[in-house]
Amino acid sequence: MNVSEKTESLQQQIDDLQARVAFQEDNLTALDEVIAKQDRMIIELNKKLDMLVGRVKDLRDQLQQGGDPLEERPPHY
Q: What is the pTM of this model?
């Protein structure tokens, strides 16, 4: 293998490595966006879960006090 062939081979290897790095960077960016979206969704779901737990506790308390939550009028009536 002469110098020209070695140089060409090394250049091809460098080009391949650069393409791989670019592909990995794109993948990391895409995954970062997915993780950020999932984090926002988890936060929102936790808020909804907390609200539902509070509602269940309120209903349980009403039932324990002998009230029927289905017959009570909402506060806006």
A: 0.63
Positive or negative torsion for Cα 43, 49, 55, 61? negative
Please list the pLDDT of the chain residue by residue as tens digits (77 residues): 788 999 999 999 999 999 999 999 999 999 999 999 999 999 999 999 999 999 999 999 888 887 665 666 667 76
In order, the DSSP letters of 1-23 are --HHHHHHHHHHHHHHHHHHHHH
Contact 34, 28 (CB under 8 A): no
Provide the Cα torsion 13, 16, 17, 20; round to 10°: -160
Q: Which two tokens stand for residue 75?
A: 């506060």
